[in-house]
Design brief:
A hairpin with a 2-residue loop joins strand 15 (438-445) and strand 16 (448-456). By secondary structure, this protein is an alpha/beta fold. The chain has three domains: 113-300, polyphosphate kinase like; 332-492, 2-Layer Sandwich (Endonuclease, Chain A), CATH 3.30.870; 504-689, Endonuclease, Chain A.
Length: 690
């Protein structure tokens, strides 16, 4: 069978996911400012895609390697071309959506204006704002005066200015680049007039003041159009033995500015002479992705579009719920000693995670804390609690992943602070990212050590915990925490591969164990026993795992998949995957948990995990998959999965050709994210009233 008929290409599937994000921006039922923010997410996703995935395919093409199997049946140049075509179509759609949203905002007295709309009163405010806040931060480069084009910063927006001025009897062209400063808010809120509110993009504010910037020139004509270049974000760790790993990584992060260009986006109304001059000066050719765009780039900034006091144009904020019977003023460790708790953020409050660490930091009986860190919040209560614990004499061990993409600098900053406070830092494992999410503490109770801990599907990050859905299991289960302790021992002694009695750890065991779990379902089905799988994850791209799921489908095993992002498996194909159904949910929150439920002949097995079913998670990272044993928590996992599965408002059918078609369903509307919050709210009220 042709590879293209068996698997969807990973990168094209990712673009289909980003199309689902764009659908949220187009959805009339989504509040208007939230729609703008989805446009920002769409744009930010695309930037990262080009910096990482597109850049990787370009490297394959330049090296002249085939790698057709890796690319799902595509040649590299063929795939690059198709990606560019899809992106151009999505960009065009996004511009139409933006124009529609801005028109609708006017009906709510919010006006996003451009230079042609500015009146005299606004003009005075804008000129003063420019002189006070923008001009000191402005970088203006006369590029035609330079023999060599300066390196444009990755994903930074520039105004490309063409100036025509008189020199004697001749008209002369000059080309200038103005860097849009990041330290100034992109959206400038102008003084209101009555009920009418006005917003001007910083780019247009600069355009309006071009005469101030170029007042030393006797120009006849000025035009300014936006451009942006995206560079390869691959880190180059050079292996210099004279430098520490952290020094090499920090230098590599700084050197991203020199990465090869992989995408050039320009205002489609730019003059042909200006465009050709820039392409020539930057040595960009047809092999690069050259994307005509609109007047404004870096629309990722719309993620921070001001709310202007218009709360009715935003989603209502939910109040995260507590665990039933657990008081914040009491001891969380005492509660965990008696039973396991399952936190499902943001429906339930992430504050329990911080409370756990704060309590451990203060408790004199707690002797040590070990935790993995992947992405910390910019201002992290998690980090503060760990530092507090170290100050109180606890032995604190932190495995911090310095190569968490685009968070490297932030993690390096925190690692420096923690190291100075006496925390024992482990910088991952050679050749492997540590993506596992776990914490374990040792507490002296009587004359013996008891362990408490938590295992999660998401990062220990207070900011993303408000936006991402994730499970966290709080437990004092001896076997599970003994296994987690072994994982931390592996971080420090990499050559020793441990055996685990309960958890599943990548890269040594996850693939084999998951194959075995799937094989068990196949055997049970053939034996007439109860068989089936319900799997929820971010991405499914590993061909070996997909083949195993196809094998299970062909044996008659019913498989339900909820996959938010990349899904290279093709469901519902007769003779290959007719027993597999797959949906994707994109909504208010970012679906982030990994949940794996196996029927196991009626004795169901439940796992939460940091690992998606991707090759990198199975074979190239340290990942942790943890069983959930408590029957009450298993019921919660059953219930919340089924609520997601019944979604007929925000679920897309992944068996459709473009993976972006809404699921067809004539039943009463079920919007799973809202329904799950109501599920926990009703459960809490019932327990409190019992």
């Amino acid at each position: 069978m042709n590879l293209k008929d068996r698997y969807i290409n990973r990168d094209l599937s990712w673009l289909q996911f980003n199309e689902r994000v764009l659908q949220e921006a187009a959805d009339e039922s989504v509040p208007l400012i939230e729609r703008l923010r989805f446009l920002g997410i769409f744009s930010n996703n695309l930037d990262e895609f080009f910096r990482v995935r597109y850049a990787g395919i370009k490297r394959i093409e330049k090296e002249g390697k085939s790698k057709v199997d890796l690319l799902g049946g595509y040649q590299a140049n063929e795939l690059l071309q198709e990606i560019t075509e899809v992106v151009i179509r999505h960009q065009s759609e996004s511009l139409d959506i933006l124009a529609d949203i801005q028109e609708q905002l006017k009906t709510h007295h919010i006006n996003v204006i451009d230079v042609s709309d500015i009146n005299n009163e606004q003009s005075e405010f804008i000129k003063d704002y420019f002189l006070q806040k923008v001009s000191p931060a402005l970088v203006t480069i006369m590029i035609d005066e330079l023999e060599e084009m300066p390196k444009l910063k990755d994903s930074r927006a520039y105004l490309a200015v063409r100036m025509i001025h008189q020199e004697g009897k001749e008209k002369k062209k000059r080309f200038v680049l103005i860097e849009i400063p990041k330290q100034v808010d992109r959206f400038v809120v102008l003084p209101s007039v009555g009920n009418e509110k006005y917003v001007l993009l910083l780019d247009d504010l600069i355009r309006f003041n071009l005469d101030v910037i170029f007042n030393i020139f006797d120009y006849r004509e000025l035009s300014a159009h936006m451009i942006k270049i995206t560079r390869d974000a691959q880190l180059d760790l050079e292996g210099d033995l004279s430098k520490s790993y952290v020094e090499q990584l920090m230098e590599s992060v700084k050197d991203r500015v020199d990465g090869d260009p992989v995408r050039f986006v320009y205002d489609k109304n730019i003059g042909e002479d200006t465009l050709n001059y820039l392409l020539g000066k930057m040595e960009i050719d047809d092999d690069d992705s050259i994307i005509p765009g609109g007047r404004y780039h870096n629309r990722r900034d719309y993620m921070k579009f001001p709310d202007l006091g218009a709360k009715h144009l935003l989603y209502d904020k939910i109040q995260p719920l507590p665990f039933s019977g657990v008081q914040f003023k009491g001891s969380l460790l005492k509660e965990i000693k008696s039973r396991d708790y399952l936190l499902y953020a943001p429906y339930q409050t992430f504050s329990y995670t911080v409370k756990f660490l704060r309590e451990a930091a203060l408790d004199p009986k707690v002797k040590s804390i070990s935790i993995t860190i992947y992405r910390l919040a910019e201002v992290s209560h998690i980090a503060s609690s760990l530092i507090n614990a170290a100050k109180n004499g606890k032995k604190v061990t932190v495995s911090i992943e310095l190569k968490a993409r685009f968070d490297e600098a932030n993690n390096i900053k925190y690692s420096d602070v923690m190291q100075r406070e006496g925390i024992n830092l482990i910088f991952g494992v050679t050749g492997l990212k540590v993506h596992a999410k776990a914490c374990v503490i040792d507490r002296l109770e009587g004359n013996r050590i008891s362990q408490y801990g938590f295992i999660s599907t998401g990062n220990f990050n207070e900011n993303t915990a408000k936006l991402y859905t994730d499970y966290t299991l709080f437990t004092s289960h001896k076997g599970i925490l003994k296994d987690v302790t072994k994982m931390f021992e592996f971080f420090e002694v990499n050559y020793k591969v441990h055996r685990y009695g309960h958890v599943i750890v990548s890269p040594h065991y996850t693939r084999k164990r998951f194959y075995k779990l799937i094989d068990q379902e196949i055997s049970n089905k053939k034996a007439g026993k109860s068989a089936g799988m319900r799997l929820k994850m971010n991405s499914l791209s590993d061909h070996g795992m997909i083949d195993k799921l196809y094998e299970a489908s062909q044996a008659g095993v019913n498989i339900k998949l909820v996959v938010r992002g990349i899904c290279c498996l093709i469901p519902g194909v007769k003779g290959m995957s007719e027993n597999i159904e797959a949906i994707s949910i994109v909504d208010k929150f970012l679906e982030h948990p990994r949940l794996y439920i196996f029927e196991n002949g009626g004795d169901k097995e439940y796992y939460i995990s940091s690992a998606d079913l991707m090759t990198r998670n199975l074979d190239k990272r340290v990942e942790l998959t943890c069983p959930v044993y408590d029957p009450e928590l298993q019921q919660e996992l059953d219930d919340t999965f089924e609520i997601s599965w019944k979604d007929n408002v925000k679920a897309r059918d992944l068996s459709s050709a473009n993976q972006a078609s809404y699921r067809q369903n004539d039943e009463s509307p079920i919007r799973s994210q809202f329904a799950i919050y109501e599920y926990y709210k009703e459960k809490l009220e019932a327990e409190q009233n019992a």
